[in-house]
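Need the bound structure for zinc ion, inputs here:
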Amino acid sequence: MLLCDRAEYTKFDGTSLGSRKESNISAVESLQILGASPEALKTLPIKVESPGFSFGNLFSLLLTLAPLLFVGFIFFRFLRQMQSGSDILGRIGRSAPRVLSGAAAKDDKVKMPVVTFEDVAGAEQAKMELLEVVEFLKESEKFVNLGARIPKGVLMAGVSGTGKTLMAKAVAGEAGAPFFSISGSEFVEMFVGVGASRVRDLFKRAREQSPAVIFVDEIDAVGRRRGIGLGGGNDEREQTLNQILVEMDGFGTDTNVIVIAATNRPDVLDPALLRPGRFDRKVILDRPDVTAREAILRVHSRGKPLDPTVSLTDLAKLTPGFVGADLENLVNEAAILAARRDLSLIGPPEFQDAMERIVAGPERKGQIISAHEREMVAYHESGHAVVMHNMENGDPIHKVSIISRGMALGYTMPLPASEKYLRSKEAFEDEIAGLLGGRAAEEIIFKQLTTGAANDLERATELARSMITRYGFSETLGLRTFGQVQGNPYLGNLGETPNYSEAMSQCIDQEISQILSTAYQRAKNIIIHQKDKLEKLAKALLDIETVERPQFEGLMA
Ligand code: ADP
Ligand code: ZN
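Answer from helper R.:
Posting the output first, comments after.
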């Protein structure tokens, strides 16, 4: 066989000889040098193959081309930079709204899942109010013919996770209209004027595709009341806000675009935004109550294999304060846990663990804690549980545990029996006593104080303070509030400005101490009188780490 630069000569006995062929002598010559007889060479079929690959060749090729490539690359980069320099301003000015659903999906040839009111659980009141908006979008002529002014803006207020974005999408979905979404915080750009041009562009596009829904998330980022906060005005925000208002004012009677703005701070919005003809409709998304929570859980467990023993009704009862996003997260976490446990159904233990994980952070397994510390934690938690159990206005204890979670070394979880909208003064006092039960147990059992009660003390103080300053529960200080909550556009809540005298502030402090010490005394009394029960519970905790409600009630009986 003969390669271009390499001669290989296989003898008939199978051994082979080889050498690099000299480029300046012929192949036959080189074979002769290797010892092939001329007769053999005559009968030899000579085949010339080009080499598949040779490092030598590649290397020399690269050497030749390298300077050329290098120069080309520099040139290319240079050109690119020149181009983007002239382009960058134009690019920033154009907004990048995300278009979803309905007609736009057809245009862009993207199949987007269309959200409807059916996917939004619970918020019946809000849905009813928004149904009208859907009608405007769908059959605007009907209203225009009667001379009615179609609303332009809806302000959706609610804490984050209550489904504001979801609801806005559902409005678009119900009306079959494209959904343009942009967030107020995106408008906060480095160049003045860019935000305004983005807004102009967004509204133009929406008008072209009308009927359409424009969703402005976090409107408070640009729509704060002017003139509050640090550092004076912010031109950029102001211009962006003005542009939004100009665009909305410019809507003719035939413009079929609805702007839905979302905020979790409706109180800080510029009044100019709320004037008639602007965001004059207000829809409030509350934290879901127990029935709404059940409905939301139902929506999110659709298509997930739940164990028949899982009761969504009970789950809803156990999750007061959870918003839609939390509940979605809960179902998702439970599904993840079930998958990690190789189960085919999601069962009650998965939901229980998912819930605790969300409320208190993941379990810290394998944490090293000394026997004495563990005992302290067991008595501390037992103290909370026993005191809470003995409070008239307390909720039944759902679970006590000394498994550490997140920052807490242990936890006592009450089960709220029913949704509460009004709380009595006594309920506050009972809750404070329950919070101080941990420290009371430490003091009585170990005659030693630890840092374990820091968080309890903080919460108890906060409760006592709000009893006096917010709810007028103090007999001596009377029916008034103290302090004005101050908002700030950049820092959020700045705290309170005192609107009371120095002398009054001393009285408030005294009153807070009074409430706390009374509650602590009550907690200590209960622990002294129920020491046997406290010890039983602490021993059980040291034994099995977690005591659930039925066993707890057994121990307390
Ligand atoms: P917000 O805009 O108020 O912060 P989102 O609309 O982004 O809240 O809600 C986050 C997620 O929570 C939604 O995608 C949805 O899955 C879930 N969610 C919130 N509220 C509901 C609800 N009422 N029904 C069903 N799902 C909800
Ligand atoms: Zn505690």
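Comments: Residues 294-360 form a domain with the Helicase, Ruva Protein; domain 3 fold (CATH 1.10.8.60). The CA atoms of residues 443 and 449 lie 6 Å apart.
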